[in-house]
Amino acid sequence: MRQHLLDPLRFFAAFVANPRQVGAVLPTSRSAVRDMLDLADVPAADLVVELGAGTGVQTGEILARLRPDARLVAVEIDQKLATALAKRYAGDDRLQVLADSAENVAAHLDGRRADVLVSALPFTSLGRRAAAADPRRAAPSAGPAGRDGGDPVLAADAG
């Protein structure tokens, strides 16, 4: 419980240290995350990729919806946030936390394609070229969403 109370402070500290990398002063609200995830068929997914995991607001809700045999790869470029996230969910074998850039996620997926891609990357604070890019380019491993072939990308701009 105490760890959750420290999340806004951790997130703010990461923002102050590198505002262009974090892109927001506070994490996305839990209600916004729930609404966003309601748009995806996370329970049917074999592989979910989360870009910009931050303090784990999305991570916790994705894990709550994820099947026991599915996998979640959470990517967070800030080492301190990634370490705290891995520690928080250390008992859940479905989760792999990567302290890396979203650009490198394909190297960690063993050739698999994501059924659902959840992005909280701060597109507005990235360079013009990156902000204009389709989120699927940041994670070229994204593929058709689950069974219906819909768009697998859900984005909640962190900024």
Could you walk me through the main structural features you see in this protein, from its secondary elements to its overall organization?
The chain is an alpha/beta fold and 159 residues long. The protein is built from seven helices and five strands. The protein has helices at 2-17, 19-22, 30-37, 57-65, 79-88, 128-132, 135-138, and strands at 47-51, 71-75, 95-98, 116-119, 153-155. A five-stranded parallel β-sheet has the order 3-2-1-4-5, covered by helices on one side. Helix 3 crosses helix 4.
What is this entry, summarized?
With 159 residues, this protein is an alpha/beta fold. It has helices at 2-17, 19-22, 30-37, 57-65, 79-88, 128-132, 135-138; strands at residues 47-51, 71-75, 95-98, 116-119, 153-155.
What brief labels describe this structure?
159 residues, alpha/beta, five-stranded parallel sheet, 7 helices, 13% strand
